[in-house]
Amino acid sequence: MRILVTGATGVIGTETVETLRAAHVPPHALVRTARRATDAGIVPWTLGGSPVPAGLGGHWDVIVHTAASTRWTMTRTEALAANVAPLRAVLALAGRDTHLVHVSTAYVAGERGAAATEFDGYRNGYEWSKAVCEEVVREEHPGPLTIVRPPLVVGRRRDGRIARFSGPYTLLHALVSGLAAVVVGDPDGFAEISPVDEVARAIADAALGAPPRASRTEIVAAGLASLRLATLIEVTCTALNTFRAAHGAPAIARPPIVPPDTWTRFFLPLADRCLSPFQSEAVKLLAMFQSYTSMATPFTPTYPVRDPADAMTTAVRHWAARKPRLALAEPRPWTLLTHNPSPPQSP
User: Fold this and answer.
1) pTM of the predicted model over 0.85
2) What is the rounded CA–CA span in Å between residue 150 and residue 161?
């Protein structure tokens, strides 16, 4: 079986490659969207921005497309260039019999706001571009298609290992630094997370299984068993404080949860006026993240995630062990800017 994996050095791509190798079906070529490759098994290719490298031609039985920019602050133009253009470059490699396993995000089917927003109701350019990618792949790929939709991803269930600390790990840094003085969201809202190895297993099962006769979508999620936001914060703080106690550091306080409407009406204007530019920007980015962890309705999984609290605890422990200086840092409270009064006028 000839398999191509894109984004093979990313969070999901790294785990997918290891899962395929463990199944004794190593991918024939591993691709990353970078100019240089540090691994002898990696073929560097700026997807959609340069010609196809030698060795990537010929028929592919399966193409697993994990490459993507997950940056939430992208504009529409940036998101199209980062995610849609590379997808079209990958589609050019696929034949009519190629089974395309396209990694999307569960949030393309999540809650949306008013349709008049910049991203058609989606919360950011990443989310919007992944929805566009799903439309493109369904319209333009003539062969078998499986779309895999993961939620927020944390480290492996058994040991917490992950290729890069991103996404939910923003919350850990914010908690120990003091930037998360409040958490924005609904305490009873659903917070969907999945260990990266379970996402990779869903992808590998699709790649190694029989190609579907009709397009299918796999949703990796815990559904009604997912954590609520208040529980996610409690689990995270407990794991952090267990690590801190073992190293003689004082516990961090669990931050209060502020409803989004209250945050927007009262706290955000105060933050703009009184916090430093760095703190204000960090708080806004953290508020964007919290919208993913306070959904009114969970996803309906086809690939259920069990015991997400255990997965989150393991992920926090691994992060703390790898980032002890951060995990043991003394939180710094918000610093309010002081405005000097105008100097007295000369008589």
Assistant:
1) yes
2) 17
